[in-house]
């Protein structure tokens, strides 16, 4: 066995015992074989509360090896509590290298963003999923939604989009926007902003989704069609922003709104901190970066 | 029209353990015909209806349905996918309690449009136009299209449920006490509306009711049930005006005269 012997003798490598990892890997393999299908698995208690990414952590723990390089993001940021804690967890129990650079990572565990930098073949993106069932809020019976998936009865998903248009004049769903995977299963891409949906389509990286509380794993293998649902007369659109990132001046990236004071001051900055830092390091400047554009 | 029935029911029985739900019931339902199933509470009317609409698997017997392309299919031998497809396109089911048949948390328009989206319509404008049209046909004003059914009165909910079922142009509609919880004036309006729609669309319907007046108004033919058995069947006017079986005589004579 590959129990790590140096200074973490009390844990098996990557916390989970080998039988558990095996069980989860089987679920992952099945999920990859049937893109978008939710595979039940025997989710374990993890040393962190539900909602912190117990599903994602179990998936990561099952696929990680000693030579992997891990990156963890929380809403695009590498430096928030959730990301820092999970990164520290894997440093401790698996003793793997960690990074904040998207390009250097082999496994990226994410809570609700896909990095701006296009992923490469060989990378694995692990999503933390709170509610894997896209039909849940329309049809609360799990027996019924499973049947609907099995028989490909997805009319109900459009009822939600219809309601959006009827109430708001446009499709107002901005996150957890339902997608159809490889023309078959409708899938909840976890609460990522719909801005990221096009990045899932034909992605070169393997995408794994783990829902710990709901005990479901699903996957999108590389080069798989991922289409966002829409109406013919109300096609799918991603969010657009009026101004560039205030720090790096980036456009066509997803921005967070940050309130600056109590007099209406606000700024829009990149949600993907690694991308923002890389751009600033190469000389890009926004209007609030506090220094003139470097002349590199 | 055709000289073949729409639905062939042969010796349907449903037992709940030793208790009889309904026993050895056979009839044919013809295109455009409305059949009323009457009887007292507990006589097996709803069990029969649920068996016919495949919501319940009978203990024995067969029900075959003539599909649009003409062939008869045994309902209990169909795959579940086919059966569910049939239920949301060619059939309708009107529940006694509208909240069983409606999605209470989505708007009236979406309730009517759901079946259209389920059969693959993906054009918002068209779906909304059909929904508006159908709300008009069941006398719900157009400006209520974005309201949720929970903002509707009981009568409106029932009419909305009917619109939701009829939007895909079904050929057969099952109704379980469609006027159950409504007051008499609303009942009268709903019956009027139903009669008009059934006539206009050439629907076949099986209506379960304990109310002989509903049977008289809506149906062409009726069967009277007691303790899971059919005690009498025939043309509605014949059965009500000249009841033969003792139980039917009792039933007809117990209607209150005002």
From TrEMBL, chain A:
Reactions catalysed according to its record: alpha-D-ribose 1-methylphosphonate 5-phosphate + AH2 + S-adenosyl-L-methionine = alpha-D-ribose 1,2-cyclic phosphate 5-phosphate + methane + 5'-deoxyadenosine + L-methionine + A + H(+)
Q: Which UniProt keywords apply?
A: 4Fe-4S, Iron, Iron-sulfur, Lyase, Metal-binding, S-adenosyl-L-methionine
Task: Indicate whether Mitochondrion appears among the record's keywords.
Answer: no
GO MF, one annotated term: 4 iron, 4 sulfur cluster binding
- GO biological process terms, semicolon-separated: organic phosphonate catabolic process
Question: What top-tier enzyme class does this entry carry?
Answer: lyase
One family name in Pfam for this protein: PhnJ
Q: Which protein family is named in the record?
A: Belongs to the PhnJ family.
Q: What is this protein called?
A: Alpha-D-ribose 1-methylphosphonate 5-phosphate C-P lyase
TrEMBL record, chain B:
What region holds the ABC transporter domain?
A: 7-252
The superkingdom listed in its UniProt entry is: Bacteria
- Indicate what this protein is called per its UniProt record: Putative phosphonate transport system ATP-binding protein
| Gene Ontology BP annotations | organic phosphonate catabolic process
Q: Which GO terms describe its molecular function?
A: ATP binding; ATP hydrolysis activity
- List the NCBIfam families: CP_lyasePhnK
| Segments crossing the lipid bilayer | none
One Pfam family from the UniProt entry? ABC_tran
Question: Mind telling me which InterPro entries this protein's record contains?
Answer: AAA+_ATPase (IPR003593), ABC_transporter-like_ATP-bd (IPR003439), ABC_transporter-like_CS (IPR017871), P-loop_NTPase (IPR027417), PhnK (IPR012700)
Q: Which UniProt keywords apply?
A: ATP-binding, Nucleotide-binding
Which species is this record about? Nitratireductor aquibiodomus
- Keyword Nucleotide-binding recorded: yes
Q: Which family does it belong to?
A: Belongs to the ABC transporter superfamily.
Q: Does the keyword Nucleotide-binding apply?
A: yes
């Amino acid at each position: 066995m590959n129990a790590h012997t140096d200074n973490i003798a009390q844990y098996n490598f990557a916390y989970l015992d080998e039988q558990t990892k095996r069980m989860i890997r089987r679920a992952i393999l099945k999920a990859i074989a049937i893109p978008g299908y939710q595979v039940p698995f025997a989710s374990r208690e993890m040393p962190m509360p539900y909602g912190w990414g117990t599903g994602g952590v179990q998936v990561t723990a099952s696929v990680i090896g000693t030579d992997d390089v891990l990156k963890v993001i929380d809403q695009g940021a590498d430096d928030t509590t959730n990301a820092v804690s999970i990164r520290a967890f894997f440093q401790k129990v698996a003793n793997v290298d960690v990074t904040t650079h998207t390009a250097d990572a082999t496994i990226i565990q994410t809570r609700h963003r896909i990095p701006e930098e296009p992923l490469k073949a060989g990378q694995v993106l692990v999503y933390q999923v709170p509610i894997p069932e896209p039909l849940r809020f329309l049809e609360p019976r799990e027996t019924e939604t499973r049947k609907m998936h099995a028989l490909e009865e997805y009319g109900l998903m459009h009822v939600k989009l219809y309601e959006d248009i009827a109430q708001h004049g446009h499709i107002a769903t901005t996150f957890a926007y339902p997608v159809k995977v490889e023309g078959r299963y409708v899938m909840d891409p976890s609460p990522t902003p719909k801005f990221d949906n096009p990045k899932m389509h034909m992605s070169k990286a393997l995408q794994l989704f783990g829902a710990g509380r709901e005990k479901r794993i699903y996957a999108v293998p590389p080069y798989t069609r991922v289409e966002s649902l829409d109406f013919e007369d109300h096609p799918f659109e991603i969010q657009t922003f009026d101004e560039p990132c205030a720090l790096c001046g980036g456009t066509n990236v997803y921005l967070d709104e940050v309130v600056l004071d109590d007099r209406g001051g606000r700024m829009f900055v990149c949600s993907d901190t690694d991308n923002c830092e890389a751009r600033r390091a190469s000389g890009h400047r926004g209007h609030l970066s506090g220094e003139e554009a470097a002349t590199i | 029209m055709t000289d073949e029935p729409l639905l062939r029911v042969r010796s349907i029985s449903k037992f709940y353990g030793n208790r009889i739900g309904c026993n050895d019931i056979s009839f044919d339902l013809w295109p455009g015909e409305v059949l009323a199933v009457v009887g007292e509470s507990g006589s097996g009317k709803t069990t029969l209806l649920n068996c016919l609409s495949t919501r319940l698997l009978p203990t024995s017997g067969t029900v075959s349905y003539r599909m649009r392309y003409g062939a008869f299919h045994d309902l209990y031998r169909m795959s579940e996918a086919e059966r569910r497809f049939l239920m949301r396109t060619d059939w309708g089911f009107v529940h006694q309690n509208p909240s069983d048949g409606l999605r209470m948390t989505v708007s009236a328009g979406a309730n009517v449009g759901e079946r259209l989206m389920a059969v693959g319509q993906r054009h918002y404008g068209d779906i909304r136009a059909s929904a508006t049209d159908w709300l008009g046909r069941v006398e719900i004003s157009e400006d209520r299209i974005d309201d949720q059914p929970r903002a509707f009165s009981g009568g409106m909910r029932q009419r909305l449920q009917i619109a939701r079922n009829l939007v895909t142009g079904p050929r057969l509609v099952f109704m379980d006490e469609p006027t159950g919880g409504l007051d008499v004036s609303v009942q009268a309006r709903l019956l009027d509306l139903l009669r008009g729609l059934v006539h206009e669309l050439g629907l076949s319907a099986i209506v379960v009711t304990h109310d002989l007046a509903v049977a008289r108004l809506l149906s062409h033919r009726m069967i009277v049930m007691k303790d899971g058995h059919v005690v009498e069947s025939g043309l509605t006017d014949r059965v009500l005006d000249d009841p033969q079986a003792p139980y039917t005589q009792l039933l007809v004579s117990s209607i209150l005269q005002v």
